[in-house]
Amino acid sequence: MSNTQHKTDFRVDEERCNGCGECVDACPMQILVVEDLISEITVVERCLECGTCMRACPNEAISISVAAGKGPSSRVGQAPERVGDGEERFTPILAALEKRLEAVSPVQQFTLNGLDIHSLNSFDVDGHACFYRLFTAEKLEKIGVSRMNFYGMMAADVMVIKPGPEYDLPYYIVDWDESDEHIFFICDLLPSDDIGRNSEHLERYFYGPLEDLYQEYATIPGIAPSQFHWVRALHSPYLLTGNIDKSSQANVDRLLAVALKYFDAWLALYRAAEPRNPDSEEMRLVQARRRNIRQLYSANDPGVAALHKFLDEKMAQAALDIIEP
Predict the structure, then answer these.
(1) What is the mean pLDDT of residues 69-86?
(2) Does domain 7-67 correspond to CATH entry 3.30.70.20?
(3) Which of 30, 146, 242, 274 could form a cystine bridge with 224, CB 3.0-4.6 A?
């Protein structure tokens, strides 16, 4: 199965563009440059259509749309032609997390909402290995683990753990998008309840387990508040995110360390968690918040467009269902 092929129509309004370079810095694929004070794309075939450049542009000078024609190839469900080609330069964060994940005895699922998702277990984009894998476990609704390797230029590794309906545990979320120069990083225990309303939830699940970790690792150069208002609204006060320069291996090591330590903090909470009445007023509020979380991610996640570029509509939606909170 392959995606509907197309190519990207990248346009810049030269009257609005002032050559500030904000889009160049924001582009995860590093395929934008400024020439003669105008932003230009260097390799249109490698555009992910994520819209990051459009959001970064202070003058709304950039537009991206789909034009007729042949786009990049993806082979879903076939063995990659060049497995591991150049991938050793990327940090093996998923391998480290999956080792810890064994503690919850995850069971892989190959159907989702009646759809066979075997093909997402292993596919490739231009010969670079990718996957979306779904698991369940006791106390959990789902564990989503994914890697998208975009032409060998950037590897996007994600793990999302969503608690079951009888547990008010926070989610565990990590997003590690790595190129040769930078790592875009998100790590958090995403609140299942309103921590402004529920002070006990804040104390038990966040302040106690994360305060010291946050104070230690928020000093990593590049960690900064999210540029997205909806992310800031949904996540905990202990969200760690930013763009980290890979020129310092010590900073990369610290970034990996805090992703693992946040997971360890979540695992301790998981082990201690007791079921609650899903029909109680408090748990109905938890479920309502979780629905709102999913709706906001579905509406705003910049990775949605990229998935539809590489996968057909059904598989792209399945991948989103696996990996979005």
Answers:
(1) 40
(2) yes
(3) 242
